[in-house]
Amino acid sequence: MNGAASQAYPVELRRVVARVEVDGELQETVFLTNNLKWSAQTICDLYRCRWSIEVFFKELKRPSNWPTSSVRMPTPSAGRCGLPCRSICCWASARFSASGGMASHGS
Description:
alpha+beta, 2 domains, two-stranded antiparallel sheet, 2 strands, elongated
């Protein structure tokens, strides 16, 4: 960085460029990091893992993952537990179905 940006953020940054396939096409993705020791491959791998976590939570929040029937919880504490459990079960069920079930896992 140079000029006003380097004065506003005086820490040295590194620019890592990765070519990522998106919808069958290679696109460049740019990462900025203040980690000057790790390899570019490690930075890209960490971002890929982080992105998987972001996608996981996005899928949990998506309304289409919820069953159509409404389930009423008997108590507020059951609701606090039931909502996250229900979300995780819906996500796991969708993943299991998409993978073809147990047959794709070598069983």
